[in-house]
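Box 4.2: Ligand-aware structure prediction
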Amino acid sequence: MTKPDLGRRGFLAGIGASASWRALGMAVPHARWIPAGLVPVVSLADDGSLLSSLQKADLQVLNDRPINIETPAHLLDDKITPSHRMFVRNNGNPPVDIGNPDDWAVEISGEACSKPMTLTVAELKRRYQPVTLQLQLECGGNGRAEFRPRASGNQWTTGAIACPEWTGVRLADVLEDCGVTDAAEYVGYRGADTHLSGDTNKQPISRGIPIAKAMQPETLLAFAMNDEPIPLIHGAPLRLVAGGYPGSVSGKWLTSLIIRDRVHDGAKMAAPSYRVPCKPVAPGSSVAGDAMCIIESMPVKSLITFPESGVTLDSDKPLEIRGHAWAGEHAVERVDISMDFGATWQRATLSEPVNRFAWQHFSAPLEFGATGYYEIWARASVSRC
Ligand SMILES: Nc1nc2c(c(=O)[nH]1)N[C@H]1C(S)=C(S)[C@@H](COP(=O)(O)O)O[C@H]1N2
Ligand SMILES: [Mo]
């Protein structure tokens, strides 16, 4: 028998005892072969036990290292997305043990912060007015699976969107206390997740938002989601929520906020990450880094959430279809529905958003004539985007 090539595995002394493996609470018979930096897939659950306890059993796992999970369209039917139906997008390994959530500290500093400070979650809750808003988070890569030619990265279909209710404090209130100066351009974040390589000098992601976005009254340092503490996988105990921007700016497991006097230069800020061509180009064109712009407000989109795609209906009664529409920082003006492959469109009933940056709901009664195969298409539009 040949001896296995150990490679980095030669340095494994003690790895089997690292926090994420210990959190499994059971023996790992082959622990000595665990590669450096590897975390157990199953320990990513909120209680450190099994993946199924994430209660995302109905969702679609796209990747397990790092864990990325999307939501089938018909499971996004709720007006307020329940936590167990929210997609998961991780760039690295989430922290395993956050200790007492109220003692969690976030450091606020940077070139454009004249009074750097460290605040615990308990202090944030005590000092600032709580705000509850419904805010949509959509991964910048949502819909990528339909790109031709294929784009690299997780092949999200339509399910990297959610619109839960968040409770937290306004980032603007906190920034004011840190004496934000006129030089402020950007607010970068750092989180407690670790790089997949196991290299502690590297961060999986450290993005951020322009100062104007940070100052909007809807931009939150959130500690609760749908009236419960934020689940670990979604960034407990404290995350940024900047609705309407790509989800990547809404940093999870926040350990620091850096008030920059320039565009933040953390991990995954440089081109081509989370950028799009500044000017539209033909699919597949290669675009130079300096012609790629940071994604800010996300584009307009709509999603039919009822009925489920692929259903067989045995009734010739009219069917009320429904779904949501959103457009980054903009309100959606109208949604139209077609059941004849786009030849004609009927205007759907569309609700107003409950607050800025919350998705809107549409519905439309459909009459089916002859029995057969139908495709129902939805198209949302905005006046300015
Ligand atoms: N610290 C940290 N924050 C993060 C990420 C991450 O990997 N680490 N992923 C980002 C991305 S790309 C997205 S789309 C959202 C996803 O949030 P969710 O997993 O709660 O749905 O979190 C963002 N915040
Ligand atoms: Mo994302």
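In the box above, the bound molecule is molybdenum atom. The longest strand covers residues 319-326.
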